[in-house]
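hiii so um. not sure if this is the right channel but i have a protein structure encoded as tokens and i wanna go backwards to a sequence. like what aa goes where. can anyone help
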């Protein structure tokens, strides 16, 4: 049986092809990869390190920290259908603890019934201005093209 004749799985496997390393302008190595369900605790820490201004600019309102880190919300954001949306996280090892920490998150969502999509991203305040948002947008555009979204 040819590969294209095989039935599609109900749940798409983790898209490893979108993983890659990159460096901030200051030389800090970063792993950029699709989000995973087990990232929820890292996202809680991420939200603790955001300013009210960054939250407002992302969500167009001031969401309380308790709302942003609610389990129901984060579980929905971390456990995604990779066929309908893609969320990338930028992760590094914390210089203080050596544990992984999320520096940014970027999301591309396909608009149902079209070849269009929309994106959103949020970069931690202490790494803004180091090229990470630009790199995440570049990768989301590449993913959108690879996933069949129109480039217009």
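sure thing!! here u go:
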């Amino acid at each position: 049986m040819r590969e294209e004749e095989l039935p599609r799985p109900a749940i798409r496997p983790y898209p490893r092809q979108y993983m890659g390393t990159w460096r901030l302008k200051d030389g800090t190595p970063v792993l950029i990869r699709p989000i995973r369900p087990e990232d929820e605790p890292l996202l809680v820490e991420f939200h603790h390190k955001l300013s009210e201004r960054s939250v407002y600019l992302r969500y167009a309102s001031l969401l309380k920290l308790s709302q942003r880190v609610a389990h129901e919300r984060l579980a929905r954001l971390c456990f995604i259908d990779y066929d309908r949306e893609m969320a990338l996280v930028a992760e590094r090892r914390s210089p203080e603890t050596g544990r992984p920490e999320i520096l940014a998150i970027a999301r591309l969502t396909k608009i149902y019934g079209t070849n269009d999509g929309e994106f959103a991203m949020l970069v931690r305040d202490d790494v803004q201005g180091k090229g990470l948002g630009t790199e995440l947008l570049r990768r989301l555009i590449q993913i959108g093209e690879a996933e069949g979204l129109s480039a217009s």
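oh and The mean pLDDT is 93.
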